[in-house]
Amino acid sequence: MPEPISASVIGGALITGVGGYFAQKSAAEEAAGAQRDASQAAIAEQRRQQAEMERLLSPYMQAGQGALGAQQALLGLGGPEAQQAAIAQLEASPQFQAMVEQGETAILQNASATGGLRGGNTQAALAQFRPQMLSQLIQQQMAQLGGLAGMGQQSALGAAGYGQQGAQGVMGQLGAMGQAQAGAALAQGQGMANLFGGIGGGLGTLGGLGAMGKGPFAGGGGGRATATGPTFGDTANAYNSMSEAQRRLAYGG
């Protein structure tokens, strides 16, 4: 049967080391799990906000793209056929038809009032009025389309900037998750080191006791007294029966 002092040393070392290791391991895993859950929730919220921002800006970006395409068509950047189609669309628009009708009516009324209804000046004014109105309308259309294209560009830049911020936030959260997992692994490794250190310390204590003739590593074996002195059992029993003050006086410490 093991000596009482050796059993208590070994048991204490094992209980302290194993208990400390599992407590440290559990705490590290719990902390890492909490950080992981918080980071995942933050990432999900950032992605939700990014999707909502894109949804809100999408109509403006689409309008800007359409306006840019219309500008390119009027300028002939899409080819002559596209330019002709864009101009013809303007000529057929209700806005152009109303402007031409009002302008021609005003020219005819003025000519009638001055007696020059059939004069050459009146016919020249009518012939020049429609092309002038079309050119004016094209310029107005280009300006309006330019405003829409600029608005779409600003919306796209805003969405891109918000997306960049979201990406940086996600990278930060992923980094925090990685640090938490690394910290948990280091804590578990330290706990394992403490476990083996505790066991080693217990064995070292037993070795020290053995040098004083106590514990399982004491010299002399477990038999009866020999010519050199008392048995191991006698020495251990004497040690265990001492008070703490008596042990310090006899063995130091």
- Helix count, per DSSP? 6
Helix fraction by DSSP (H/I, runs of at least 4):
over 70%
Strand content: under 5%
CA-to-CA gap between the ends? 28 Å
The coarse silhouette is rod-shaped
Computed Rg: 48 Å
Low-confidence stretches: 220-232, 249-253
Q: Helix/strand-derived class?
A: mainly alpha
The SSE order reads: HHHHHH
How many strands?
0
Give the integer mean of the pLDDT values: 74
* Largest sheet descriptor: none
How many individual domains?
A: 2
Q: In summary, what is this structure?
A:
The chain has 253 residues and is mainly alpha-helical.
Can you give a write-up of this model?
The protein has six helices and no strands. The longest helix has about 90 residues, at about 120-210. It is mostly helical. The protein folds into two domains: about 5-220; about 225-253, no CATH class. Helices cover about 85% and strands about 0% of the residues. It is rod-shaped and about 145 Å long.
Secondary structure layout plus pairing:
Blueprint: H1 4-74, H2 80-91, H3 94-114, H4 120-211, H5 232-241, H6 244-251
Helix pairs in contact: 1-2, 1-4, 3-4
